[in-house]
Amino acid sequence: MKKMLLINAGVVLAALSYSAIAYDGQNCSEPGVCWEPKPGYPEKVAGSKYDPKHDVNELNKQAQSIVEMEERNKKRQEHLAKTGKFVYDVDDIE
């Protein structure tokens, strides 16, 4: 029974691996780089209907929040160095 089960599992595994190897539905520039644009997709995305038109302020929000976080951490470290007590809430410092 175990032998039959192992043989069947091997046959199924071999069939699945063969079908994966045989698939060649795209023209790849190199192995693993097989992205092809759909017909009608422009060569240059900027200015086309596919351009996401990101707002610069929205993109900079994370950078601004990181700068603010670093400022808060600096205040916490300075307070810890002065008093020896760590205070999480920056508003409670001073």
Summary?
With 94 residues, this protein is mainly α.
How many β-strands, per DSSP?
0
> Structural class, judged by helices and strands?
mainly alpha
Query: What is the terminal separation in angstroms?
Result: 77 Å
Report the principal-axis shape.
flat
Rg of Cα set: 29 Å
Can you count the helices?
A: 2
* Oligomerization state: single chain
Beta fraction: under 5%
- In N-to-C order, the SSE pattern is HH
The helicity comes to 40-55%
Largest sheet report: none
Low-pLDDT segments: none
Mean pLDDT rating: 84
Question: Secondary structure elements and their pairing?
Answer:
Elements: H1 2-22, H2 56-83
Describe the structure.
By secondary structure, the protein is mainly α. The relative contact order is 0.05. It starts with a helix and ends in an 11-residue tail after the last helix. The model has no long low-confidence stretch (mean pLDDT 84). It is flat.
